[in-house]
Design a protein that fits this description.
Heme c 2 binds at residues 157, 160-161. The protein has 265 residues and is an all-alpha fold. The protein contains ten helices and two strands, in the order αααααααββααα. The chain has two domains: 39-124, Cytochrome c-like domain (Cytochrome Bc1 Complex, Chain D, domain 2), CATH 1.10.760; 133-235, Cytochrome c-like domain (Cytochrome Bc1 Complex, Chain D, domain 2).
């Protein structure tokens, strides 16, 4: 084998390596890609199945076996994953018994369970998805943007939630809850899904950036409550009342003082 010099062998290695690499890539592709795809499919359909099972046990008595609704609860077709996330995470759902307005309570489900039920409800019809942090995180907004958030809040929300976000009563024993301590994600979800009497504020009306501005404004209220003094944070009404009491009280004292001076004369 004298004619096969080491130099020739060396040259033959390169194309061989290339063929081997191509073969390996091809093999990896056929193994990895369809595998990934099928596992992703299986993942979501298992999640939807899990959600369907959880829903049947916990929710179907009011919302129907296929989420179509009943006399006890509305149809959930098209309310979206965000609505399920909001309702379950704030403890409003599952409702224990029919009431005027589902109260907030301790959430009894794990993250996985909520995601599964949300995926199931989302599979019934398209609706708002659970937002990513970038959609609601108010980090990095300027002072002007926060002030604009206040403007948006006063225009769109204060009629029900009060200008300081401290909530208010609505007709028929219903109420708009105080917004202090509500998480940014739940604020986003409330806007996009419109629970109860609250209107839906869609992306076309109020962009995600607008929502972030309002969240930043609400957080700024929590940092420095309006009025400086603790007047209950109820805004102009109670502050006006306070001024009224102090003002009238002062006038009374003044009148008494004048009267006593007059009496001494
Ligand atoms: C006892 C009956 C009852 C049970 C059980 C119940 N719900 Fe509800 N659900 C209601 C009623 C009534 C409403 C509407 C009134 C309200 O929001 O206060 C509602 C509203 C909702 C909404 C808001 C719909 C919308 O228009 O955005 C969602 C989402 C929801 N329920 C999901 C669930 C899920 C998920 C479960 C199970 C974990 C569940 N519910 C269990 C009665 C029920
Ligand atoms: C027509 C009255 C009305 C208007 C306007 C309104 N809301 Fe609401 N909002 C409600 C009611 C009623 C609820 C309670 C829903 C429930 O309990 O199911 C609510 C609930 C909420 C919640 C959930 C609070 C919680 O404790 O989980 C948030 C957040 C919220 N609203 C923010 C806003 C913002 C921000 C705006 C303005 C863009 C707004 N709302 C405009 C009536 C209103």
């Amino acid at each position: 084998m004298k004619f096969l010099s080491s130099r020739r062998r060396h040259r033959a290695v390169r194309p061989l390596l290339l063929v081997a690499a191509l073969f390996l890539t091809g093999a990896l592709y056929t193994v990895a890609v369809p595998d990934e795809r099928s596992s992703a499919d299986a993942g979501t359909s298992t999640q939807v199945e899990e959600g369907r099972a959880l829903f049947a046990v916990n929710c179907s008595s009011c919302h129907g076996l296929n989420g179509e609704g009943s006399s006890e609860g509305p149809s959930l077709v098209g309310v979206g994953a965000a609505s399920v996330d909001f309702q379950v995470e704030t403890g409003r759902m599952p409702l224990a018994a029919p009431v005027e307005q589902a109260p907030q309570k301790e959430n009894i489900f794990s993250r996985e369970d909520i995601d599964a039920m949300a995926a199931y409800v989302a599979s019934l019809g398209p609706g708002p998805e659970i937002p990513t942090e970038a959609q609601y995180d108010p980090e990095g907004l300027t002072a002007e943007q926060i002030a604009e958030g206040g403007e948006l809040f006063r225009t769109n929300c204060s009629a029900c939630h009060n200008f300081a976000g401290s909530g208010g009563a609505l007709p028929n024993g219903k109420y708009a809850p105080p917004l202090e301590g509500v998480t940014p994600k739940h604020i986003w979800e409330a806007l996009r899904t419109g629970p109860q009497q609250m209107p839906v504020f869609s992306e076309e009306v109020i962009t995600d950036e607008n929502v972030r501005m309002m969240i930043a404004y609400l957080q700024s209220l929590e940092e420095e409550p309006t009025g400086g003094l603790t007047l209950g944070g109820l805004g102009p009404v109670s502050e006006g009342l306070w001024a009224w009491i102090v003002g009238i009280g002062g006038l009374c004292l003044f009148a008494v003082w004048i009267a006593s001076k007059g009496a001494r004369k």
